[in-house]
Design goal:
By secondary structure, this protein is an alpha/beta fold. The protein has one domain: Spore Coat Polysaccharide Biosynthesis Protein SpsA, Chain A (Alpha-Beta Complex). Helices cover 38% and strands 15% of the residues. The longest helix is centred in the C-terminal third of the chain and has 24 residues. The protein starts with a strand and ends with a helix.
Length: 330
């Protein structure tokens, strides 16, 4: 039987252009002749956007693109203000949606592939149902683990890049158990990531950081970053004409020697270069105009961001206080 590489994404109409960038970058670094089937789990994506996405097949002859509507079970799960689309849950249904696929590589729409990725696809999972990037060592995770009812030193992983073995996943009943947990305790701060961490209990195959390099931890050369995950600052929200002009003059062969402070700027630069090669160039032109006043920044982990402080206040102070006052008044 001919080998086929199965990759998957999930998005709604708003995130289609960014999914196109992620898929384009993935295919640019597919140097073999093995067919790639890309599956997009769509939350009401328009026919026009689907048509534009299908144009990628003309640029990459080994690519075949498929769209899959979200299962009804996905739409019944609770969403949050930060994650309003039910597509956030789509990845946990992949083994059910693609039952014939022996392996599935899932990528978030805010990723950018910078190097070869087939060695990741063929990685040994050591008998586990999936592989993900561990976030061990991030100090605020102690507090987050306690909130989830887990030991504070428990391993916590990010699901922006997820390598799945569907047969093993189904044999462990992960989709059904995740849906039951989400309905019982959700929504979580990270709707699909938190419950999967709770159920996995550390039983997952850890990926090397190069396969899911967070944008606020980009020290090192491009050779050490096969897939970058923009979890801190979305590159389509930042653009600097001055920086773009400077970076455009930097030859690719000397990029690894650039100072560390340039890493974040250069990755944003690479995103825009890829974006304008996709069929959504007109959309990105409008986004660039809107983002011109925003300069890419280096900063702390998103755990240290204002949203994290607001989340802590809401969960640890405001909600318990409201509950206490409500009980007292009744």
């Amino acid at each position: 039987m001919e080998e086929i590489l199965h990759v998957a994404f999930a998005c709604d109409e708003a995130y289609v252009p960014f999914t196109a960038v992620a898929l384009w970058s993935l295919m640019e670094h597919h140097h073999g002749r093995v067919p790639v089937q890309a599956h997009v789990l769509d939350d009401a994506i328009s026919e026009n956007s689907q048509f534009k996405m299908k144009q990628l097949e003309k640029n990459f002859p080994f690519l075949k693109l498929h769209f899959h509507s979200l299962p009804e079970a996905v739409r019944s799960l609770p969403v949050t203000e930060k994650y309003p689309s039910p597509a956030v849950y789509a990845r946990i249904f992949l083994p059910e949606i693609l039952p014939e696929s022996p392996r599935i590589l899932y990528l978030d729409s805010d990723t950018l592939v910078l190097g070869e990725w087939e060695s990741l696809y063929h990685s040994e999972l050591g008998g586990h149902a999936f592989a993900a990037r561990s976030e061990r060592g991030v100090s605020p995770l102690r507090w987050h683990n306690r909130r989830l009812g887990r030991p504070q030193d428990a391993d916590y992983f990010n699901v922006g890049v997820l390598l799945i073995e569907p047969i093993r996943w189904r044999s462990e009943g992960l989709t059904e158990r995740l849906v039951a947990l989400i309905r019982a305790r959700g929504p979580f701060d990270f709707p699909e990531q938190d419950p999967l961490n709770i159920l996995a209990e550390g039983q997952f195959c850890p990926l090397q950081p190069r396969w899911n390099r967070f944008d606020y931890r980009t020290s090192g050369s491009l050779e050490e970053m096969s897939i970058v995950h923009f979890i801190y600052q979305k590159p389509w929200k930042a653009f600097s004409e001055k920086l773009e002009a400077q970076l455009a003059r930097v030859p690719k062969n000397i990029r690894p020697k650039l100072p560390r402070r340039w890493d974040c700027y250069y990755l944003t630069h690479l995103f825009w270069q890829t974006a304008f090669r996709t069929p959504f160039a007109e959309k990105f032109q409008a986004l660039r105009e809107a983002a011109k006043r925003t300069k890419p920044v280096r900063g702390f982990s998103p755990w240290h961001s204002l949203s994290c402080i607001e989340r802590f206040f809401r969960k640890a102070i405001r909600d318990p206080l409201r509950s206490y006052l409500g009980t007292k008044s009744s």
